[in-house]
Design brief:
Strand content: 15-25%
Largest sheet: 6 strands, mixed, barrel
Shape: elongated
Distance between the termini: 71 Å
Number of strands: 18
Helix content: 40-55%
Number of helices: 21
Structural class: alpha+beta
Radius of gyration: 49 Å
């Protein structure tokens, strides 16, 4: 149950319940959702027990021991009964004495008689107020403030006085330091300042004169008086400021309102500047800049031959983020026992054409498109949900580059294969002709791959979609094993820092990439790069212009706030010149008058500015950090302006104002 329900169940106020929690008498559970207190039935029973024991006037210390199980309840009740009986006896004696005093018919009460009577009663067992304890407390306070001791030495010189004090400090084991010697010396005892004086007293028994040294603590009356005076002045100043604000309520409201509006306008301006800067900083994420490697005339972005130098530049650039790379291969499914050669285009002979292990390609097998990829986003013909993985496989593991592949469902059905099977392929790749712009096909060593996933390909995209997908790292390894020069088939990337586009373009030019030129000779070589930065550049230029315009107004805005900080108090204080002059004439110092007027004005400005900052944050004109910064900037400028206004205001002639000549 909540606190309100516990209040109703126990009759204990919320404040007392919180107090008992602070005294470790109660520790309710907390709701995990909102951290509100959740009291149990045991907590309610515990509170009722606390209430009962407190109504019996049992101290909280005793109650804590009962609740913790350190003292049995009945034993604690018995002890409390003894205390109450003792109090009853004390009260009974006091009641009897009060009755006797009331019955006394004399006009004046003989205090000595009644005091003697009470002392005799106390000796007989009656108990009155603990005057002895009170006396001990007062005596201890007096001992700390003042102490005295007797000395056998005659104290007639400053040197003897100092020796007596040093001997006393040595006997007491306290650290002594003389500050000002003399017959009224000032010294430090354990770092506490004291002053000393001597008196001469006669011993009642021997009638001999003894010297008594009285040491008084020097946290002197002057210091205490000054402290009381400062507190009095502070309280008087607070009261005067409150009275003036109430008396000049219209001017006070006007001052606060102007401050509030000033902060709102300033927050609107700085909030707009901050928001524009944030938009500019987030622009690369909002409008990503992508680049694609193409052929020279810009007609091809797939099926290219992208050189290793370009790849090295792209992968090593600090200005480039996500990179999409593909590598295309051609293949035929291989079957055991077939000896026939593959019909088709010209093939290389020699070592590169070997089939290996007596297995040849199936002459009836159609040509298979094999695509090496380095990220899932490249495969546009199917989504992540359309891939069925073998147990323990996913994209992250797949792209590590092993002898694995993902096959289309159509291919698996035609070949009678399934996930987990191995498929053998004869491979070929395209390479540039030694002379001219054309391409030729070249054989690679056969490859066996484990099928670790299947993909669903729609009929509309079946013609363009690859039937086999392999990791691009495995394709690079195949080229390396066949001692072939690797070419990527496509390359695209995202620019992480579009503000460094010029530096990136210079790096790409050094790698052999240029802009797309439609008049160039058609080719399969990836020698051009198209950077899609038009939209980003337009947005960036627009935001830069807005930021420059807003920043140009910043000095003007600050100047306006400074002028407002000067003009507002200057105009509002003109009608209070007589009040200022009368305060000065009545003896109030110029400094105090100036501080009072300045503090009054700044308190109203702070309050109005705080309201303006809160409204700006609440309505989304500026974020909380920006609103706080605006409030601080406003106070700084307003303080400077108000200080200048108060300086000029304080230079008025009091006599001229009082004589109505000013």
């Amino acid at each position: 149950m909540n606190t309100k329900q516990v209040e109703e169940a126990t009759g204990i106020t919320r404040q007392n319940i919180r107090y008992y929690e602070r005294q470790n008498l109660l520790e309710p559970a907390r709701d995990t959702g909102n951290a509100y207190r959740d009291y149990s039935e045991e907590d309610v029973r515990r509170l009722k027990l606390i209430k009962m024991l407190r109504m019996l006037d049992m101290p909280l210390k005793e109650i804590r021991q009962v609740l913790n199980g350190n003292i049995p309840l009945k034993k604690a009740i018995a002890k409390q009964q003894e205390n109450l009986l003792l109090q009853q006896k004390q009260l009974q004696a006091a009641l009897e004495m009060c009755t006797s005093i009331q019955k006394d018919k004399s006009e004046t009460i003989d205090v000595d008689i009644y005091l003697e009577w009470m002392e005799n009663m106390a000796k007989g067992g009656s108990i009155f107020a603990k005057i002895v304890d009170d006396y001990k407390q007062v005596a201890e306070e007096e001992r700390r403030r003042q102490f005295s001791f007797y000395t056998e030495l005659p104290v007639h010189t400053a040197g003897t006085f100092e020796k007596v004090l040093r001997d006393y400090a040595k006997e007491q084991g306290r650290k002594f330091h003389m500050v000002k010697p003399g017959m009224y010396p000032e010294f430090l005892l354990d770092g506490v300042p004291y002053t000393a004086a001597r008196t001469f007293e006669k011993d009642g028994g021997t009638e001999e004169t003894r010297t008594r040294i009285i040491c008084s603590r020097a946290e002197d009356a002057n210091g205490r008086e000054r402290a009381r005076g400062h507190r009095r002045i502070l309280l008087q100043s607070v009261y005067a400021i409150g009275v003036n604000i109430k008396r000049h309520r219209f001017k006070s409201i006007l001052n606060a309102a102007i401050s509030m509006l000033t902060v709102i306008v300033l927050a609107f301006y700085l909030g707009g500047l901050s928001g524009t800067r944030q938009q500019f900083a987030e622009l690369p994420e909002a409008i990503p800049v992508r680049a694609t490697v193409m052929n020279a005339i810009g007609t091809l972005r797939n099926g290219l031959l992208v050189r290793q130098q370009v790849l090295d530049t792209v992968y090593g650039s600090p200005y480039i983020g996500e990179i999409e790379e593909t590598a295309e291969l051609l293949g035929h499914i291989r079957t055991e026992g077939s000896k026939e050669e593959i019909p088709g285009p010209e093939k290389e002979t020699g070592e590169d054409a070997r089939a290996g292990d007596g297995a040849e390609s199936n002459p009836q097998s159609p040509e298979i498109q094999i695509l090496g990829v380095n990220c899932p986003e490249i495969t546009e013909d199917y989504t992540e949900e359309e891939i069925r993985w073998a147990d323990g496989w996913n994209w992250e593991r797949f792209l590590e580059g092993g002898k694995v592949c993902i096959a289309g469902n159509t291919f698996l059905g035609q070949q009678g294969l399934d996930i987990g099977d191995e498929a053998a392929f004869t491979l070929e790749h395209y390479q540039p002709l030694p002379f001219g712009p054309g391409l030729e096909r070249s054989s690679l060593m056969p490859e066996e791959m484990e099928i670790v996933g299947s993909m669903s390909i729609t009929e509309d995209s079946a013609a363009q979609a690859p039937q086999i997908v392999v990791p691009v790292e495995r394709v690079k390894q195949i080229y390396k094993e066949n001692v072939k020069v690797y070419f990527a088939s496509s390359l695209a990337f995202t620019v992480t820092d579009p503000m460094e586009l010029n530096a990136l373009k210079q790096d790409l030019i050094k790698a052999g990439l240029s802009s797309v030129v439609p008049e160039m000779t058609d080719s399969y070589i990836g020698s051009a790069c198209r950077i899609e930065d038009d939209v980003f550049m337009q947005a960036a230029v627009g935001l830069e212009k807005n930021i420059a315009l807003l920043e140009a107004f910043l000095p003007f805005i600050i100047l306006v706030v400074l002028l407002a900080g000067y003009l507002v108090p200057h105009l509002l204080l003109q009608g209070r010149r007589g009040e200022y002059a009368i305060m000065r004439a009545l003896g109030t110092g110029k400094k105090r008058c100036t501080v009072l007027f300045f503090t009054e004005h700044m308190l109203l400005a702070m309050a109005g500015g705080a309201v303006g900052a809160g409204l700006s944050a609440a309505f989304g004109t500026a974020g909380i950090p920006t609103a706080a910064a605006v409030w601080g900037l406003f106070l700084l400028c307003h303080t400077l302006g108000a200080a200048a206004a108060m300086w000029l205001f304080g230079k008025m002639s009091v006599a001229a104002v009082l004589s109505c000549r000013d």
